[in-house]
Amino acid sequence: MIETRKEEERALLIGVELQQTENFVMSMEELASLAKTAGAVVKGSYTQKREKYDSKTFIGSGKLEEIKLMVEADGIDTVIVNNRLTPRQNVNLEEILGVKVIDRMQLILDIFAMRARSHEGKLQVHLAQLKYMLPRLIGQGIMLSRQAGGIGSRGPGESQLELNRRSIRNQIADIERQLKIVEKNRATIRERRIQSGVFKIGLIGYTNAGKSTIMNALTDKRQYEADELFATLDATTKQVQLSDTFQVTVTDTVGFIQDLPTELISAFKSTLEESMTVDLLLHVIDASDPNHTEQEEVVLTILQELEMLDIPRLALYNKLDKTDDHFTPSQFPHVMLSAKDENAKSHIQMMVLAKIKTMFEPFEIRVPLKDSYTLHDLGRIALIDMRFYEDDVEIIKGYISKKDKWKLEEFENGLY
Ligand SMILES: Nc1nc2c(ncn2[C@@H]2O[C@H](COP(=O)(O)OP(=O)(O)OP(=O)(O)O)[C@@H](O)[C@H]2O)c(=O)[nH]1
Ligand SMILES: [Mg+2]
């Protein structure tokens, strides 16, 4: 093999399709996007149908010979396997192929490590990496990977090269301690937000669906949006005006993906926690993606696992400018839009307000004219449809949430 230091990291993708494998093609395409996001140049991919994975080398030995030839011919630096490898398979593959081999989990962990911004995000990713590493401390496999550098070796902690079991266990305990403190602080902030009574909206959806772009359209602000997977990792909450008076908070979070590494689930959940207590979920879907139906299913399955299916939900089919004529939405109710369109903001505002109206209850109150100055406050928590005067009272009709209904009486009595 020629030892040259190249700028780019040349990757070969490998996938094995078992009879029961779901969404195999989508998942291979996704692996290519993930590899690209992590900075690799994908030089090719190799797939095989098998009854079961080979316990020693994951893929059949005959095929491995072919792969080895491809690795040598294309100057491949890294082989990326679209499944979870056992530590033994990982070591064996690296020995046979003579290059770094990483699996889908390591690739995703690596991207999360690149992207984590907040203190908590970094701790969570570091923890996930250490947990992934611990059972892999056998033989030379992991050392080989780490020394090769590049994808699979990035981490938020500088001590990642210290690879003995005891130090890893200590680091895990230490991070878990730090996380407890951070989580407590976050719970307090969330509690305060729940008590504030503001209507809360959460943007969720498959990675790259356009959540951050929609957030930007709504807030006229710049949130990092990019044609990359997991562009957003940390939750961000912003105030958004839905009408002249009605104000909500909108939370943008990490995107969903199939086969999320189990080590990352708690990181993922803590990021999503922010969205677990919302009043309305906006499920953003990339309608132009040929796999959007499978992606919608993945999102709904994860929502079910997180017990979030009972939160009212509105589907936003995004990127309409890129969809073909055959596109048919499968979820109802829904909105179809292009987040990049200049009318996107008013379109979303209108449709979301209409959705909220269906969740609220109609009311009518009569307020003495002398007290009507308090009505601006009512407009923050209720949707006001109509207001008119009769003698010395003002009559207001609109919609309000069940939990805020009791406040109406205070407005009527001028107590608010
Ligand atoms: N053509 C087109 N592109 C869009 C539209 N909305 C978003 N995009 C692009 O799609 C890509 C992904 O958008 P993001 O907003 O970063 O997606 P996201 O859902 O936040 O993704 P993650 O944070 O990775 O989960 C970006 O390149 C956007 O510019 C749209 O309506 N039309
Ligand atoms: Mg985003």
Automatic annotation (TrEMBL):
SUPFAM superfamilies: P-loop containing nucleoside triphosphate hydrolases. GTP binds at residues 205-212, 230-234, 252-255, 318-321, 338-340. Residues 199-360 form the Hflx-type G domain. The keyword Coiled coil applies. Its cofactor is Mg(2+). Keywords: Coiled coil, Cytoplasm, GTP-binding, Magnesium, Metal-binding, Nucleotide-binding. Mg(2+) binds at residues 212, 232. The keyword Zinc does not apply. GO terms for molecular function: GTP binding; GTPase activity; metal ion binding; ribosome binding. GO terms for cellular component: cytoplasm. InterPro entries: G_HFLX_dom, GTP-bd, GTP-bd_M, GTPase_HflX, GTPase_HflX_N, GTPase_HflX_N_sf, P-loop_NTPase, Small_GTP-bd. Residues 158-192 form a coiled coil. It is found in: Cytoplasm. PANTHER family: GTP-BINDING PROTEIN 6-RELATED (PTHR10229:SF0), GTP-BINDING PROTEIN HFLX (PTHR10229). Monomer. Associates with the 50S ribosomal subunit. GTPase that associates with the 50S ribosomal subunit and may have a role during protein synthesis or ribosome biogenesis. Belongs to the TRAFAC class OBG-HflX-like GTPase superfamily. HflX GTPase family. HAMAP family: GTPase_HflX (MF_00900). This is GTPase HflX. It comes from Streptococcus zhangguiae.
